[in-house]
Amino acid sequence: MIIDEKWLLELLDSPLETQTLAGEDKQAMLIRGVTHLIETDFAGLCQLLYRVDVDEKRLKERLNSSDAPPAEIIAHLLLERQKQKVALRAKYQMGIPKDIPEDERW
């Protein structure tokens, strides 16, 4: 398995209950992936954070104010941001009006 930005994005888009064969939960997998990127591809990690739209100010505040390992903080913020996106999509999802004929829908 190659741990890279693409793998982490796919993991973030998967259901929260995702587990590996070893029983590792999604957050543990993210922590492992983020740790790998910190050690091997920091630019890729920065690109991932930008792509997922993690708030830079919030990230800096959490990193400076917490004793938790950076990978845990980053993984938590990634999951938190994905949950926010899902909630926003659900809130603003528009249904197809029933009174528009099928051939006029786009």
Give the arrangement of secondary structure elements.
Elements: H1 5-13, H2 26-40, H3 42-52, H4 56-65, H5 70-92
Helix pairs in contact: 1-2, 2-3, 2-5
What's the pLDDT, averaged over the residues? 84
H/E series: HHHHH
Gap between N and C termini, in Å? Answer: 40 Å
The count of domains is 1
SS elements, strand count: 0
Portion in strands: under 5%
- Our count of helices gives 5
Q: Which spans of ≥5 residues are poorly predicted at pLDDT below 50?
A: none
Report on the biggest sheet. Answer: none
Choose one word for the global shape.
Answer: elongated
Percent helix range? 55-70%
- Give the helix/strand class: mainly alpha
Radius of gyration: 17 Å
Can you tell me about this structure?
By secondary structure, this protein is mainly alpha-helical. It has one domain. The chain is 64% helix and 0% strand. It has five helices and no strands.
Descriptive terms for the model:
64% helix; elongated; 106 residues; 5 helices; mainly alpha
In short:
With 106 residues, this protein is mostly helical. The chain is built from 5 helices and no strands.
